[in-house]
Amino acid sequence: MIYRKAYGVLVSIFLIGLYASNVFAAKHTIRFAGNQPDGHPLTMLQYKFKELTEKYSNGQIEVKVYIANQLGGITEVNEAVRDGSLTMGMSSVTYIAGNYNKKFSITNLPYLVDRSNISVLYSLMDGAVGQKLSNELKTNNLKVVGYYQLGFRNVTNRKRPVDSPDDLKGLKIRLQPNKVHIRSFEAFGANPVSMDWAEVYSAMQQGVIDGQENPIDIIYMNKFYEVQKFCTLTGHFFDIGAVFMNLDFYNSLPKKMQDVVQKAGAETMRYQRKLSSDREQEFINKLSQKMDVRKLSEENLRRFKMLSKPVYQDIRKIILDDQLVDEFLSAFK
After folding, report:
1. Residue 321 falls inside a structural domain
2. What is the pLDDT of residues 158-181, one digit of tens each?
3. I need a labelling partner for 208 at 20 to 30 A (CA). Which of 93, 144, 170, 251 fits?
4. pLDDT in tens, 234-282
């Protein structure tokens, strides 16, 4: 009799544990792919989103984080999220403009954003303009969760210091696949080469390209100083990115879990933007110990800006939406 009672208690405990595990186990899994190494602000974005989503969903959503191109380069990840073989990814809007919707090119104009008006850009992207652009991506089966900061992009190369546009002439500079970026560097006198992110380091190492342009934290964290000698803080583009989810997956979530994703996303974007801004000078200081890092003179900065003017004339032909162009540019006046 004693053994039967003990057996019955053990079975009850087992069934209760099984029931509890089913109740509290994650019902939804998000596979979130990124392209930067551990410790980078964008990788920290991924982990922050995981932390907040799992917290706000009470464990009903599990977020699995993959960093440093573990699931492929940016183009591969974007396509995987669109097709549904991957739940979630992140990409510079420059890739989105180049591969999915040209209207995102409005954010790519050279020297539009400076340190005095970054908040204007985020007001637009967190408001009606950003919502309009986000809605455009639904035709690509992508749901935008939020817009994050990549920051000011700067030129590196292996051949010579770049102090003026004249120094860029003839240099093969890798750019993201985007007409506005390519047109800008053509105007600067460089020889732009479109290339996916995952190929950049090896292309510089092998001499296929002379240099590239990226935010300072990406340059440092990916150890470009091993294959590049010179860096100039040109700040020619202020780059932002989008975190996006497969739209079919998002629509399959209960409304309560959709709200969790949106809440966690909004908080994560604010966290990452501040982190990126706060750490910029730190990365400049670190990179200066590895490379020849220099600033542009005021005169040469004006020259770069003057050469950029034709790109502003081209933007209307590129995106074919005068209303969007007017709304966006008027905010910066």
Report:
1. yes
2. 999 999 999 999 999 999 999 999
3. 93
4. 999 999 999 999 999 999 999 999 999 999 999 999 999 999 999 999 9
List the one residue out of 169, 158, 121 whose CA is nearest residue 291.
Answer: 158
Domain total in the chain: 1
The pLDDT of residue 120 is above 90: yes
Q: What pLDDT does residue 9 have?
A: 45
pLDDT at 26: 79
Q: What is the 3-state secondary structure (H, E, C) of the chain?
A: CHHHHHHHHHHHHHHHHHHHHHHHCCCEEEEEECCCCCCCHHHHHHHHHHHHHHHHCCCCEEEEEECCCCCCCHHHHHHHHHHCCCCEEEEEHHHHHHHCCHHHHHHHCCCCCCCCCHHHHHHHHCCHHHHHHHHHHHHHCEEEEEEEEEEEEEEEECCCCCCCHHHHCCCEEEECCCHHHHHHHHHHCCEEEECCHHHHHHHHHCCCCCEEEEEHHHHHHCCHHHCCCEEEECCCCEEEEEEEEEHHHHHHCCHHHHHHHHHHHHHHHHHHHHHHHHHHHHHHHHHHCCCEEEECCHHHHHHHHHHHHHHHHHHHHHHCCHHHHHHHHHCCC
As a whole number, mean pLDDT of residues 323-331 equals: 96
- CATH number for the domain spanning 152: value is 3.40.190.170
**Does 330 map to a domain?**
no
Q: Is residue 52 part of a domain?
A: yes
Please give the pLDDT value at position 5: 53
253 in any annotated domain: yes
Domain that includes residue 31, residue range: 2-325
